[in-house]
Design goal:
With about 290 residues, the chain is an alpha+beta fold. It has a single domain, classed as Hotdog Thioesterase (Thiol Ester Dehydrase, Chain A, Roll). It is built from 7 helices and 10 strands. The longest helix is centred in the C-terminal third of the chain and has 13 residues.
C-alpha cells in the first residue's frame, strides 16, 4: 500500500457528544471568554470534532510508516449554525487527496459533522507526513512547565470599519497549557509534549498545536460578533512552529464587508522582521 491508496477512504461515522465539561476545559485551555461559552461551544471547538475521527486515520500502520514527521499545514472550517452543549453529533472523515513532494506527503482530509439540527461544521485539513524530518532546526531548551507570555482577555469589542486595523490580542501558551489543550481537543501528537519526538521531527523542541493557534485566531475574530454563531468560515495557514512560552500577538484588518458577512485578515506574529506563526482569513456573520 502507498499513501495514494488512501484517497477515498472514509473514517467513521463516530458519535461525538458535546459535553459541558469538555467545552469548559477547551475554553479554559485556549484562553477564551468563559462567560460567553456556557451553553454553546466556541468555533474553535471544531478541532475536537475533527479529532473524533482523525486519530483513526493517523494511527493506521501504513500511515505510521510516514509518521516520523506529522505536521498540520493548513485548516479550513465552515460553520453552518451554533452548537449547543448537550448535542450529539455524527462525525465523518474522508481522505480527499494525497500529494507527494519527494519524501513529503500532503494528505487532504475532509470532515463533516451532523446533528439533530442539521450540519454544524465542515472542514478540510492538510497534514504533512514524512519518514524523514520535515524541517531542520537547532535544538532549544524547554521552558519551565508553567512559563507563559502575556495574554489578553477575549471579551467583546466593536468591529472597526473596512480597511481599519483590528485591536491586537496577545496570546501565549505554557507547556502545561499544551497538555490541557491535548486533553480537551484530542490532538495527542507527541511533538506537542515530548522533546525527543519533536527533535526527531526536526523541530527545536515541543511546539504548540496548530489548532490551538487557530482557536486564538478565531477568538480574535469572534469577539467582534455577539451570540453563539459568530463565524461563518475560516482558512488558516500554519507558517512556522510556535514554541511554548513564546509571546505572540494577533493583528489584522477588516478586509471587506458585504451581504454574506465581513471578512477579516489576521496573523499571529512574534516579532518584527520574522514571518508570522500563522495567518488566517475569517468571515464573521453579518
Amino acid at each position: 500500500m502507498t499513501l495514494d491508496a488512501l484517497v477515498g477512504r472514509v473514517v467513521g461515522p463516530a458519535a461525538f457528544c458535546v459535553e459541558a465539561g469538555q467545552v469548559a476545559d477547551f475554553v479554559r485551555a485556549t484562553g477564551d471568554d468563559a462567560g460567553r461559552w456556557r451553553g454553546f461551544a466556541p468555533p474553535g471547538f471544531a478541532a475536537a470534532a475533527l479529532f473524533a475521527v482523525a486519530p483513526a486515520l493517523l494511527a493506521d500502520p501504513e500511515v505510521g510508516r510516514y509518521g516520523r514527521s506529522l505536521l498540520h499545514a493548513e485548516q479550513a472550517f465552515t460553520w453552518r449554525r451554533a452548537l449547543a452543549v448537550g448535542e450529539v453529533l455524527e462525525v465523518r472523515g474522508r481522505v480527499a487527496a494525497v500529494r507527494a513532494r519527494g519524501t513529503l506527503h500532503i494528505v487532504s482530509f475532509e470532515v463533516e459533522t451532523d446533528g439533530p439540527e442539521g450540519t454544524w461544521m465542515e472542514g478540510v485539513s492538510s497534514f504533512m507526513l514524512s519518514d524523514k524530518p520535515a524541517v531542520a532546526s537547532e535544538e532549544e531548551e524547554e521552558p519551565a512547565v508553567d512559563e507563559q507570555g502575556p495574554c489578553d482577555p477575549a471579551g467583546p469589542i466593536p468591529l472597526p470599519a473596512v480597511g481599519e486595523p483590528l485591536p491586537p490580542l496577545r496570546r501565549s501558551a505554557s507547556r502545561f497549557d499544551l497538555e490541557r489543550y491535548a486533553a480537551a481537543g484530542g490532538d495527542r501528537n507527541p511533538i506537542h509534549w515530548d522533546h525527543d519526538a519533536a527533535r526527531a521531527a526536526g523541530l527545536p523542541g515541543v511546539v504548540a498545536h496548530g489548532l490551538l493557534v487557530a482557536a486564538w485566531l478565531f477568538q480574535a475574530a469572534a469577539r467582534h460578533r455577539a451570540g453563539p454563531d459568530p463565524l461563518r468560515r475560516a482558512r488558516v495557514r500554519f507558517r512556522r512552529p510556535l514554541r511554548p512560552a513564546a509571546a505572540g500577538v494577533i493583528s489584522g484588518r477588516v478586509a471587506s464587508s458585504g451581504a454574506p458577512g465581513t471578512t477579516l485578515e489576521l496573523a499571529l506574529e512574534g516579532g518584527a522582521g520574522r514571518p508570522p506563526f500563522a495567518t488566517a482569513v475569517v468571515e464573521v456573520t453579518p
